[in-house]
Amino acid sequence: MQCHRAWPFTDQNCRSFVIHSSSLSVWHQFRAIDCLSQREGRIRTCPSATFRLELRALKQTEILAVGAGPAGLTAGIYAARSGHKAILLEKSFAGGQMALTSEVENYPGFSEPVNGMQLAQTMEQQATRFGCEMLNGEATGITSSAGGFEVATTAGPVTAAAVVVCSGVKPKLLGAPGETELTGRGVSYCAVCDGPLFKGREVAVIGGGDSALDEAIYLSNIASRVHVIHRRDEFRACKFAQQRLRERDNIVYHLSCVVDSFNGSKRLENLTVRNLKDNSTSVLPVAGAFVYVGWQPNTGWCSNLVALDDSGNVKTDDRLRTSVPGIFAAGDVRNTHLRQVATAVGDGALAAMSAHDFLIGKR
Ligand SMILES: Cc1cc2nc3c(=O)[nH]c(=O)nc-3n(C[C@H](O)[C@H](O)[C@H](O)COP(=O)(O)OP(=O)(O)OC[C@H]3O[C@@H](n4cnc5c(N)ncnc54)[C@H](O)[C@@H]3O)c2cc1C
Questions:
Q1: Do 47 and 187 fall into the same domain?
Q2: Is 104 close to ligand 1, i.e. is its CB under 6 Å away?
Q3: Residue nearest to ligand 1 atom 26, measured at CA
Q4: Which of 48, 133, 148, 307 could form a disulfide with 161 if both were Cys (CB 3.0 to 4.6 A apart)?
Q5: Cβ(290) – ligand 1 distance below 6 Å
Q6: How many distinct structural domains can be found in the chain?
Q7: Residue 98 CB–ligand 1 contact under 6 Å
Q8: Please, what is the angle between helix 239-246 and helix 210-220, to 10°?
Q9: Is 68 in the pocket of ligand 1 (CB under 6 A)?
């Protein structure tokens, strides 16, 4: 449209715009932005500039859940099924970490292991069936506003009377030299995503918890050999996972060992591994290294408002209320002792119902 015709659309419900103007010169792009920024008084026109304007209206909802992992998907189901207008905001794809694992075998209701991505799709369908709106975008900030909160997102601002923080966790880096430089070039944090790239080759898994062992088992079906490197002399993972790992004949254990460096010029070529007992070092010729050494909560967007514990987890009470009335938290992002699909789902249900009670109390 002609830029001067955009003016009638710029009412107070439309706070952000995307100008699709690839055919415009840079000068005209700036002029178009200039025109749209003249919200008071006369709008300046640049008659020759034609562009496609995508209005990003201020969205309003009763309950906004941020993050569509199992916690957020369940919060969406419970919020919408309770009759609330509910939006579920997700920056990448529904399912969160659950969608990154090929086999979930401890989530009740499935006698055989279920694929995490399939489980996520079913949960998403269930949430949308009750009327929960899926919104693709990343939350970048939150402020209190009249009647609730305004969440800044890459899909435009969303106001909500109640917010459920379900933004989960992201992998912790090991911090060894070469790790960052070689991420995506042999160093990975997701076996399901990148494992198939290493078919018939040697790989390493670093870590000793459930995620590390589950992924080592998955990789043992693809790689020729899987080196499991763990800094302690025994695993933290459950006995069942340890038993399953022992049944594989292509696993090599490096206990009481740490990775000193990830080496390679263009791609990962090998790892320098140090034995903590005798300080000896060895070089493992692996093409892929999968790091599972812990998680850090995704709270950057809300840490200005809600109280966090020393590890950066959102603090909650037994009803999953945060330090701010009207904001709740569910799943891995909060201070919890068990980070699993079953606990995230339980949290999502409780947090949504606590949000429901909060909204009822306000009426
Ligand atoms: C490799 C692996 C294997 C696992 N295997 C099992 C298993 O077998 N059984 C089991 O029970 N558990 C397993 N888990 C753990 C389980 O997946 C997690 O506990 C569960 O997914 C946590 O759910 P959540 O909804 O709290 O968070 P997440 O799953 O982390 O989801 C959070 C979501 O929020 C989104 N997000 C983050 N920040 C923003 C933002 N600012 N704006 C918008 N969206 C945002 C993310 O993209 C993500 O989709 C495994 C985890 C991993 C990594």
A1: no
A2: yes
A3: 331
A4: 148
A5: no
A6: 3
A7: yes
A8: 20
A9: yes
The rounded distance, in Å, linking the Cα atoms of 318 and 320 is 5
For ligand 1, atom 35, name the residue with the nearest CA.
67
Domain span at residue 31 reads: 5-55
* Shared-domain flag, residues 68 and 34: no
Whether residue 347 has its Cβ less than 6 Å from ligand 1: no
Residue 245, domain CATH? 3.50.50.60
Phi-psi group of 257: left, alpha or beta (phi > 0 → left; psi -120 to 50 → alpha; rest → beta):
beta
Q: Cα(301)–Cα(76) distance, rounded to whole angstroms?
A: 20
* pLDDT, tens only, 165-222: 999 999 999 999 999 999 989 999 989 888 999 999 999 999 999 989 999 999 999 9
Q: 10 C-alpha vs ligand 1 centroid, how far in Å? A: 38
- Condensed to tens digits (0 to 9), the pLDDT of residues 150-166 reads 999 999 999 999 999 99
Shared domain check, 14 and 68: no
Mind telling me the catalytic residues? 190, 193-194
Q: Do 51 and 64 reside in the same domain of the chain? A: no
Same domain, 277 and 304: no
Q: Are residues 10 and 82 in the same domain?
A: no
Distance 89 CA to ligand 1 centre (A): 14
pLDDT (tens digit, 9 = 90+) per residue, 99-128?
A: 988 788 899 999 999 999 999 999 999 999
